[in-house]
Protein backbone atom coordinates (compact mmCIF):
# COMPACT_ATOMS: atom_id res chain seq x y z
CA UNK A 1 0.00 0.00 0.00
CA UNK A 2 2.88 2.40 0.71
CA UNK A 3 4.01 2.18 -2.93
CA UNK A 4 0.62 3.42 -4.16
CA UNK A 5 0.44 6.08 -1.45
CA UNK A 6 3.87 7.50 -2.30
CA UNK A 7 3.00 7.73 -5.98
CA UNK A 8 -0.44 9.20 -5.33
CA UNK A 9 0.77 11.78 -2.83
CA UNK A 10 3.68 12.75 -5.08
CA UNK A 11 1.36 13.30 -8.03
CA UNK A 12 -1.16 15.14 -5.87
CA UNK A 13 1.58 17.65 -5.03
CA UNK A 14 2.67 17.84 -8.68
CA UNK A 15 6.16 16.58 -7.86
CA UNK A 16 8.34 14.62 -10.24
CA UNK A 17 10.16 11.60 -8.86
CA UNK A 18 13.36 13.60 -9.19
CA UNK A 19 12.02 16.59 -7.23
CA UNK A 20 10.66 14.34 -4.46
CA UNK A 21 14.02 12.56 -4.31
CA UNK A 22 15.81 15.91 -3.91
CA UNK A 23 13.43 17.00 -1.14
CA UNK A 24 14.03 13.89 0.97
CA UNK A 25 17.67 13.23 0.08
CA UNK A 26 17.52 10.04 -2.01
CA UNK A 27 18.02 9.23 -5.69
CA UNK A 28 15.26 9.33 -8.30
CA UNK A 29 15.83 5.60 -8.85
CA UNK A 30 15.11 4.95 -5.18
CA UNK A 31 11.76 6.75 -5.42
CA UNK A 32 10.97 4.79 -8.61
CA UNK A 33 11.70 1.49 -6.79
CA UNK A 34 9.45 2.49 -3.88
CA UNK A 35 6.61 3.37 -6.24
CA UNK A 36 7.07 0.13 -8.18
CA UNK A 37 6.96 -1.85 -4.94
CA UNK A 38 10.35 -3.43 -5.58
CA UNK A 39 11.83 -1.92 -2.40
CA UNK A 40 10.57 -0.16 0.72
CA UNK A 41 11.71 3.11 2.30
CA UNK A 42 13.51 2.86 5.63
CA UNK A 43 12.08 4.48 8.75
CA UNK A 44 13.99 7.75 8.29
CA UNK A 45 12.83 8.02 4.68
CA UNK A 46 9.24 7.30 5.76
CA UNK A 47 9.47 10.15 8.27
CA UNK A 48 10.79 12.50 5.57
CA UNK A 49 8.08 11.38 3.13
CA UNK A 50 5.34 11.90 5.73
CA UNK A 51 6.65 15.38 6.51
CA UNK A 52 6.96 16.26 2.82
CA UNK A 53 3.40 15.10 2.11
CA UNK A 54 2.03 16.50 5.40
CA UNK A 55 0.54 13.18 6.50
CA UNK A 56 1.24 10.95 9.48
CA UNK A 57 3.57 7.98 9.05
CA UNK A 58 0.60 5.77 9.92
CA UNK A 59 -1.41 7.20 7.03
CA UNK A 60 1.56 7.04 4.66
CA UNK A 61 1.89 3.33 5.43
CA UNK A 62 -1.71 2.22 5.86
CA UNK A 63 -4.28 4.72 4.60
CA UNK A 64 -6.41 3.38 1.79
CA UNK A 65 -5.17 4.98 -1.46
CA UNK A 66 -8.81 5.58 -2.43
CA UNK A 67 -9.13 8.03 0.48
CA UNK A 68 -5.94 9.82 -0.51
CA UNK A 69 -7.18 10.07 -4.10
CA UNK A 70 -10.31 11.99 -3.15
CA UNK A 71 -10.22 15.51 -4.54
CA UNK A 72 -9.70 18.05 -1.79
CA UNK A 73 -11.66 21.25 -1.74
CA UNK A 74 -10.12 24.35 -0.27
CA UNK A 75 -10.66 24.36 3.48
CA UNK A 76 -11.71 20.67 3.58
CA UNK A 77 -9.33 18.04 4.95
CA UNK A 78 -8.88 14.34 5.44
CA UNK A 79 -6.58 13.96 8.41
CA UNK A 80 -6.51 10.16 8.38
CA UNK A 81 -8.01 7.58 10.63
CA UNK A 82 -8.13 7.56 14.42
CA UNK A 83 -8.62 4.62 16.76
CA UNK A 84 -11.16 4.62 19.56
CA UNK A 85 -9.43 3.44 22.75
CA UNK A 86 -11.01 1.08 25.29
CA UNK A 87 -12.00 4.07 27.45
CA UNK A 88 -13.70 5.70 24.45
CA UNK A 89 -11.05 8.35 23.92
CA UNK A 90 -9.57 9.28 20.56
CA UNK A 91 -6.42 11.21 19.81
CA UNK A 92 -6.70 13.94 17.20
CA UNK A 93 -3.84 13.97 14.69
CA UNK A 94 -1.29 16.73 15.30
CA UNK A 95 -1.91 18.13 11.83
CA UNK A 96 -5.63 18.54 12.62
CA UNK A 97 -4.89 20.20 15.96
CA UNK A 98 -2.46 22.58 14.28
CA UNK A 99 -4.76 23.42 11.36
CA UNK A 100 -7.66 24.27 13.66
CA UNK A 101 -5.57 25.70 16.53
CA UNK A 102 -6.91 23.12 19.00
CA UNK A 103 -5.08 23.28 22.31
CA UNK A 104 -5.30 21.11 25.45
CA UNK A 105 -8.33 22.16 27.46
CA UNK A 106 -10.30 23.48 24.46
CA UNK A 107 -13.99 22.58 24.48
CA UNK A 108 -15.29 20.79 21.40
CA UNK A 109 -18.87 19.73 20.79
CA UNK A 110 -19.39 16.23 19.40
CA UNK A 111 -22.40 16.23 17.10
CA UNK A 112 -23.84 13.33 15.14
CA UNK A 113 -26.17 12.44 12.32
CA UNK A 114 -27.19 8.80 11.90
CA UNK A 115 -26.84 9.12 8.12
CA UNK A 116 -23.64 11.16 7.99
CA UNK A 117 -21.63 10.27 11.10
CA UNK A 118 -19.89 12.30 13.77
CA UNK A 119 -18.19 15.69 13.76
CA UNK A 120 -16.34 17.85 16.26
CA UNK A 121 -17.25 21.53 16.34
CA UNK A 122 -15.78 24.37 18.37
CA UNK A 123 -18.32 25.05 21.14
CA UNK A 124 -18.06 28.85 20.79
CA UNK A 125 -18.63 28.65 17.03
CA UNK A 126 -21.68 26.44 17.56
CA UNK A 127 -23.15 28.73 20.23
CA UNK A 128 -22.62 31.83 18.05
CA UNK A 129 -24.47 30.12 15.20
CA UNK A 130 -27.27 29.05 17.52
CA UNK A 131 -27.66 32.56 18.94
CA UNK A 132 -27.69 34.02 15.43
CA UNK A 133 -30.44 31.63 14.30
CA UNK A 134 -32.42 32.26 17.46
CA UNK A 135 -32.24 36.03 16.93
CA UNK A 136 -33.28 35.63 13.29
CA UNK A 137 -36.30 33.50 14.24
CA UNK A 138 -37.42 35.99 16.91
CA UNK A 139 -37.71 38.84 14.37
UniProtKB/TrEMBL annotation:
Residues 6-60 form the HTH cro/C1-type domain. The keyword DNA-binding applies. The keyword DNA-binding applies. One of its GO terms (molecular function) is DNA binding. This is XRE family transcriptional regulator. It comes from Streptococcus pantholopis. Signal peptide: none annotated. SMART domains: HTH_XRE (SM00530). InterPro entries: Cro/C1-type_HTH, Lambda_DNA-bd_dom_sf, SpoVT-AbrB_dom, SpoVT-AbrB_sf. Keywords: DNA-binding.
Amino acid sequence: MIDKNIKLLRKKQNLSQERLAEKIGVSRQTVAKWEAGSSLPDVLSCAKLAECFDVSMEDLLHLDPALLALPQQKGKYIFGSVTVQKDGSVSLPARARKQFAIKPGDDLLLIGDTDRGLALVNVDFFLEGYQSLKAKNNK
